Amino acid sequence: MAATLRDTRSAELYERALQYLPGGVNSPVRAMRAIGRSPIFIERGSGAEITDVDGNTYIDYVCSWGPLILGHANPAVVEAITAAAATGTTYGAPTAGEVDLAEEISRRVPGIEMLRMTSSGTEAAMSAIRLARAATGREKLLKFAGAYHGHLDGLLAQAGSGLATASLPSSPGVPAAATAATVVVPWNDAAAVERAIAQHDFAAILAEPYPANMGLVPPAPGFLDLLAESATQNGALLVFDEVISGLRVARGGAQELTGVLPDITVLGKVIGGGLPAAAYGASRDLMERIAPAGDVYQAGTLSGNPLAVAAALATLRQLDEQAYLRLQATTEQLADGLREAADGVPVQVVSTTGLLTVFFSQEPVHDYAGATACDTDRHAAWCRALLARGVYPPPSQFEAWFPSLAHTAEHVERTIEAAAAAFAEVA
Ligand SMILES: *Cc1c(COP(=O)(O)O)cnc(C)c1O
């Protein structure tokens, strides 16, 4: 039987929001248009659960799109933020915490000796590209279709007219000149990468090593090695955008998991512990090109913000090897359960530690074309059915689920039960 969601208060707030905020939201995916409904307004969160303004409680698999690897309102994180706020929220001068955090991250992430903090992943990606261009004296970028690196102009390019051609902007307002230097090829397509590097001198090959913004589409065996070799051969720098995968798929991110080291790493999401923070890092040589050590300008009023740094340190303190083993077990339990719950509905459940996608597809998904070929209508109906049963999935086929360390075996069991009922409803 179809369950329905009580959402009177959310609907009222949405009506008001539409008058003052474009689309009623401050970031597009929150509007839930991709699953054919209006947004749900959240009132509070605790651990793995969130409660909306109508009093519905959900097991949350968005977790703010990745930052909340410990779940909502983790007591140690709340305490750290509160203590930091009581002594001043920002100074625009260095603090001890920033040094602790930089040291901790460089210990964890193999490709980072030195880093610069920013306030968003977009800013960090933009700055990493500036550094790559400065270091190589080149302008062109190679990126992958379906990969997201924030909303900077130069990367809002889609795979247009073939891999040898510079792409057209994928949003109005982005000048053609901004994307003219961006070449887009399909993910997991070794031949396309080889053709591109034969034709262009790139400043950077830019990749999400575990792409999770077209749904989760892990690299084919050897593909990341090919990217590293291609970068070396081409004279380009390899930039891993680990804004999602960093500090999530393993303690040291995808680069630790796969053993493939990038020249520059971009971090975000988990690194802020739920507050606005991101970073880019590399070898000391490269990073000392950044001002004031070097000549590449980059700055930020709230960069290294004391509250974000306190939240980050309190988060990282809880992320030891054991934590990743637990997150892996939770993710596997969820993936296995969802696969079984599908019971004949054609889906591909793809997962790695802390990330999961249910593609509504008969075929395995290897790239963006495969992701966009999914049955998004059925996926949308399934997501609405999950919401009505107290499970809050990412409201788009092209996003990943973010199980957290606050999700217990019992949460996962309840999720699988709800998912089975939702699959039956859309079968
Ligand atoms: C979220 C994301 C970004 C952008 O980060 P913001 O903090 O939203 O600006 C960049 N790259 C990847 C891989 C992301 O998932």
UniProtKB/TrEMBL annotation:
Q: Does the keyword Cell inner membrane apply?
A: no
Question: Its Enzyme Commission number?
Answer: 5.4.3.8
UniProt-listed InterPro entries: 4pyrrol_synth_GluAld_NH2Trfase, Aminotrans_3, Aminotrans_3_PPA_site, PyrdxlP-dep_Trfase, PyrdxlP-dep_Trfase_major, PyrdxlP-dep_Trfase_small
Please provide an example of a Pfam family that matches this protein in its UniProt record. Answer: Aminotran_3
- Provide the cofactor list for this protein: pyridoxal 5'-phosphate
Give the pathway: Porphyrin-containing compound metabolism; protoporphyrin-IX biosynthesis; 5-aminolevulinate from L-glutamyl-tRNA(Glu): step 2/2
Principal EC category = isomerase
Question: What does the entry give for GO biological process?
Answer: protoporphyrinogen IX biosynthetic process
Going by the UniProt record, its keywords in alphabetical order are: Isomerase, Porphyrin biosynthesis, Pyridoxal phosphate
Q: Which SUPFAM superfamilies match?
A: PLP-dependent transferases
Any one GO molecular-function label of the UniProt entry:
pyridoxal phosphate binding
Q: Which NCBIfam families match?
A: hemL, PRK00062.1
HAMAP family reported for this sequence: HemL_aminotrans_3
- Which PANTHER family does the record associate with it? GLUTAMATE-1-SEMIALDEHYDE 2,1-AMINOMUTASE (PTHR43713), GLUTAMATE-1-SEMIALDEHYDE 2,1-AMINOMUTASE 1, CHLOROPLASTIC-RELATED (PTHR43713:SF3)
According to its UniProt record, which protein family does this protein belong to? Answer: Belongs to the class-III pyridoxal-phosphate-dependent aminotransferase family. HemL subfamily.
- Protein name listed in UniProt: glutamate-1-semialdehyde 2,1-aminomutase
